[in-house]
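# nightly structure sweep
# worker-07 picked up a monomer target from the shared queue
# config: single-sequence mode, recycle default, output format = C-alpha cells
# input follows
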Amino acid sequence: MSKTPMLMPQLLYTKIVNLPDDPQPGLIVTQPVTRVDAGKTQRVRFVLKNSAEPLKVEHLKRVIFTTIPQRDKNKVKVVFSQNLPVIIHPSGLDVNMEPWKDLQWHMRGGKLSVENKTPYVIRLEQKVKLLPSGAHADLPKAYILPGETISAHASTTLSALDKNIEMYPATRYGYKAKSFVAEIK
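# output follows
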C-alpha cells in the first residue's frame, strides 16, 4: 500500500527486480503504473507466476516504488523512490522467526564459510565477528538463499582458535534482531 503526501496527483511506478542469484519464480505486479490522488492510498497487487512444481523454499526479490510528479513549467520536482525486499514464502512451509540459528559455519584453511541448509531466506549484516579473537570478516551480500554456501572475506588470515561467530541477523520484517553467537564447525 502506498500513500502520497503530496498536494498534487502522482504516478506510482512499481518495478520488480529479480536478483541474479534467485531469478525464479516470476513475480508480476498488476498495474505497474497507477495514478494516486493527493492524500489517497493505493494498493499494489503482486501475482506469483505459475510454475510446474509448487514452491518448497523461500525466494527473494526486490520491489522499487517510485513516485513520478506531474510536470510543471519552471519548477523542479523531486522523485521519491523506495527499494524494498520481498520474500516469497511457500504456503506449505512453516514460519520460522529465527532461521539464522540453523546456519552452519565452517572454518577450513583459514577461510570462513556459511551454509544455509534451511528452506528460508536469511538476512543479516555483512560484517561478522569471530570469537574469542574479535577478528572481523565480511560476507559478500546481506542475505543467504536456501541451499546456498557463501565465503566470508577477511583482511587477515583467520585463526583456527576461533570457535564461535557473532552475527547480526535481520527479522523477516527487516528489523535488526539481537546478535546471535553460533558455533564454527
